[in-house]
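User: Hello! I'm new to structural biology and keep hearing that structure can be predicted from sequence alone. Could you demonstrate with Aspartyl-trna synthetase? Please show me the input and the output so I can see what each looks like.

Assistant: Of course. The first part below is the input, the amino acid sequence of Aspartyl-trna synthetase. The second part is the output, the predicted structure written as tokens.
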Amino acid sequence: MTVRWRVLSMVFAAATLGAVAIETTADAKDSALSTSGLPVPRYVSLKSDHVNVRAGPTKDNDVAWVYTKAGLPVEITAEFENWRRIRDSEGAEGWVYHSLLSGRRTAVVTMKAKDDFTPLYDRADVQGNVAARLQAGVVTQVKRCAAGWCHVTGDGFDGWIEQQRLWGVYADEKIN
């Protein structure tokens, strides 16, 4: 009977160690998704007025298109070595070299309906005074976000906008 218990104990131990090894491998695989150590996905912005977007994460891959405006927000959806797979506000995806991206937060104003203008308030409250009306596609610099509102600035405007009206910040994300 003791031999039987030893065999069962060894089988149980092997199964437990196998489960731990599988879990450790899965954890290592998950952390490998972020070679920078930063969370994925996350929003960043384009650092340069000339950013090549490639079909894959090497310079050997073809340039699919080129961004020509610094400051546009993009979402990093994956990392591979020094390359970042990004998605823009229109859903286009491709690979960009990491040094062409900035941690500076920007966002694009979205619209609820065609020809819609988004109010920019003087405080984080719909009862506040409307400081400006922003068209869809306007790029803003995000200063901070809390409680569903973001303080944004741009060329000739400074105020508060409802967070849901921006692409480039996550719902309920807090930015200081």
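User: So the tokens describe the shape?

Assistant: Right, they're a compact way of writing down the 3D structure. Reading them back into a model, for example: The CA atoms of residues 121 and 132 lie 7 Å apart.
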